[in-house]
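Hi there,

I know you've been waiting on this one. I reran it after we fixed the sequence typo, so this is the corrected version. Both the input and the resulting structure follow.
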Amino acid sequence: MSFLAFFIKPLAYISVPVILLRTVASTSPIGRYYVQLTVYLGTLVVFSTWGVVVAVGMSLIGRRHDVNYVVARSFYAIASRVLDIQVEVEGEEHLQTCPMVMVGNHQSMLDILYLGRVFPRKASIMAKKQLQWSPLGPWMFMSGAVFVDRGNSTKAHESLAAAGEEMKSKGISLMMYPEGTRHCQEVPSLLPFKKGAFHLAVQAGIPVIPVICENYWRIYHKGVFGTGTIKVRVLPPILTAGLSASDVPELTTLVRDQMLSALRDISVKVAADEEMKAAEEPEMKADSPPIEEADPTPASTVEVVPDEVPDTRSESSSETPSVDVSMSQSLRSVSEYGTETDDEGMVLVGRHHH
């Protein structure tokens, strides 16, 4: 009897909160939101704690930089099932490029789920200093993470400069969020890009690989935490060999245009997006100059010079082939985001697998 009690009691203790959570989740959408959020954060805590154990063990056998890959894939395997959210990846073969700078759009803390699905081997993390005190902090620290102080521009520059040197000397791959902060709204869009990731790529002469996660507003935002499938598209490498610092603004614009086009292409269409496009059309027509009738009398020829500032609302083609960004052949335009800024986004550092 005592033998059966040994197994039955733990099951009883576990089943009670599970039943309670399921009951709350079924009562209302807001109840489901808090249940899903509790499960998600609880899973993060469990795996960050387990990650510390993994980090210690793998460091002892000389595989410290495989810790993030093991923990990330394990986290995705469990979290995707308990949350009933799957991640589909298109173009995953491009992540085999090494070394590389991966740049992604940053929506919310749910990004950790898709990163768990695509995170490469031989990786360590550079992240904002605040994450040091999050549930992921102990695991990130033990796995060799470098934390950037976003409130101190000088220290942030030093951290990125050090990362650049390590890229060149040790063949490191990185993933960064060039938007610099989280951005999630119903209509798919991107914030202006900061240039830290692109300076690093040009400095090291390694390709940039855009990683785009679809707009998952329908699945997760404040008050909503549903289920479904999230699409991720990895674009072909954009080569940077031979570029200089003066080419960075143009490279930044090129990558952002490709990412915005892909984001809109893979995201679920929403009514607000269609309304916005419909509202833009008459505005664009109103801005265009009126067509004048031809004057029958001779007149001096006037050369009409088009506006040199590109319309950032236009989208690039959904086709995104591998691009060798030769500045003599690519767009020579002035970006509205051309002002030099610091990159404050999270940096994921991947070691080249020897």
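Quick highlight: Residues 11-15, 290-354 have pLDDT under 50 and may be disordered.

Best,
R. S.
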